[in-house]
Amino acid sequence: MPYFEGFDDATRERIAQDLIAAACAEFGLRMIEAEFVAHSENVVYRVTAQRDGAFHEYALRISGPTRYTTPQLEAECRWIAAIGRETSVAAPEPVATPDGSRVVEVAVPELPAPRRCAMFPWLRGEKTDPPRPEHLRALGVVTAALHNHADTYGREAHTDRPAADWASLLAPFARGELIAAWEGYTGPVVTDEERLVYMQAAKRLGEAIGRIPTDRDHGLIHADLHLWNVVYHDGTPCPIDFDDCHFAPYMTDVATTLWHHANDPQSPALRDAYIEGYRTTRPTPSDWESQVAVFMAARCFSMMDWILGWRREDHMGSGSQAASNFVPQLRAYLDTDG
Fold it and tell me: Residues near 147 by Cβ (< 8 Å), separated by ≥ 6?
């Protein structure tokens, strides 16, 4: 979501403050102060607000008008709330409005469409960088607990979250279409040789994912469980940012976590610790290794799809450099027997 692009800094800050104050009011809070935290698909602020005479800290997430509908965001918040009630996972309980809504639509005059806002308690803790095996072991336990919960949750018709659609995501890459939305960028995203690797890997992954069963080890997943989306409090991992949650094979979660550590010198130890932790709470499927290999390679494409949609090539690092950096991993996948 563009961070209120097209405005000068002073106007952007005023719009943000007006929007945050209005969102807080919808949740029955009085905003005291707000600090910008991050901007990726959403904009996040750390908000201090007053409720019933007491001061509390919250994470306010401001979503754009098009990515998800209000019912889809409500479904995400209901799942997070259920996780907190029904499991041992420390998930941030979404704040509700007086009428029970967990997502509010806030309009300000300068923006052409309302923004959808959700609010969560600010979790105390720290992010791990670099991680140690014990961090990954604990995250494996939490991931398995989420999957155990998803075995029975989310299968009702009212759970309005999308299902993984790898066929649609991979199709442009299989045709060699790596088209960036980056303003002012006129050069190619990849070389011709790199484009061929993307095409071959996309075609092969489409076939491999089509063979992965969906009648077991499949359900609602977090879908973005890397360590920037986990806060550790006294050694316990607390997952945050469920914004990408959707229905998919559970090993997608496992692959996503391990993908982010694939180039770490201690990657084998981190992987072993993570799987050990997972298995203390849930058995891995018999074909877990082949599934993880497929979804780790596929993660390159979901990341590339996200990067190609950036407003600027340097939005979060170099998009073109990232495109080249994924090629060795895709070549390695093509060299396997899977």
Answer: 217, 219, 221, 250, 253, 282
Q: What's the CA dihedral at 110, 112, 113, 115 to 10 degrees?
A: -40
* Per-residue pLDDT reduced to its tens digit, 210-219: 999 999 999 9
Quote the pLDDT of residue 176.
97
CA distance 156 to 118: 23
- What is d(CA 16, CA 36) in angstroms, rounded to the nearest whole number? 9
Angle between helices 267-279 and 251-259 (to 10 degrees): 150
Q: Is residue 127 part of a domain?
A: no
Of 93, 121, 149, the residue that ends a domain is 121
Same domain, 233 and 308: yes
pLDDT, position 1: 43
Contact between 127 and 232 (Cβ < 8 Å): yes
H/E run at residue 291: helix 288-308
Cβ-based neighbours of 326, under 8 Å, separated by 6 or more: 300, 303, 304
Q: Is 98 exposed, middle or buried (0-12, 13-18, 19+ CB in 10 A)?
A: exposed
Number of domains in the chain: 2
Assess whether pLDDT exceeds 70 at residue 265: yes
CA dihedral 130, 132, 134, 137 (to 10 degrees): 70
Tens of pLDDT, residues 28-60: 999 999 999 988 889 999 999 999 999 999 999
Strands 246-249 and 218-221: antiparallel
